[in-house]
Amino acid sequence: MLKLTKKADYGLMALKYLAEHPETPALSAKDVADAYGIPAQLLAKILQRLTKTGLLRSHAGMNGGYALARDARQISAYEVILAIDGPFFITSCTRGAKSCELTPSCTIKEPLARVNDTIAGVLKSISIHDLADREHGDAAAARDRQGLVTLTV
Amino acid sequence: MLKLTKKADYGLMALKYLAEHPETPALSAKDVADAYGIPAQLLAKILQRLTKTGLLRSHAGMNGGYALARDARQISAYEVILAIDGPFFITSCTRGAKSCELTPSCTIKEPLARVNDTIAGVLKSISIHDLADREHGDAAAARDRQGLVTLTV
DNA sequence: CTATATAGGACCGTTCAAGTCGTATATTTG
DNA sequence: CAAATATACGACTTGAACGGTCCTATATAG
Ligand code: SF4
Ligand code: SF4
Question: Is the pLDDT of residue B145 over 60?
Answer without folding.
Answer: no
